Amino acid sequence: MARVGMPRKFVFVCLNERPEEHPRPSCTRRGSGNVFEALREETGRQGLVDVKVIASGCLEPCMVGPSIYVAPDDVWYGGVTVEDVPLLVEQHLANDEPVEFLRIGREEFELSPLAGRSDLPPGEIPPI
Ligand code: FES
Q: For residues 59 and 34, what is the distance between their CA atoms, to the nearest angstrom?
């Protein structure tokens, strides 16, 4: 039985938004707002009062957003859609088994919006 009090898990959902012309994509433009709302609804529907879904700023793996970080499990997800939410909530947030096909790691953090662009010098990324 879930207890109210200190959350068992925190789910950070990136809701960062950048201008369309910015070279780095942003999660809000990829639908993270709907994913955030779906996570809140589904955790409520499944009675997970000990899981806290939190709106976050940029979490860094912008190239594969919408990005989500689950603590204290230290699990990263990328490309999450509204359709993925029921599985993510039931399998991971309720039963502690991460959803492998949605997981991302170090490689996704190192993706660059400038990859393959020879017209810009390396490191020429506008601030977030
Ligand atoms: S904009 Fe979402 S991770 Fe950077």
A: 17
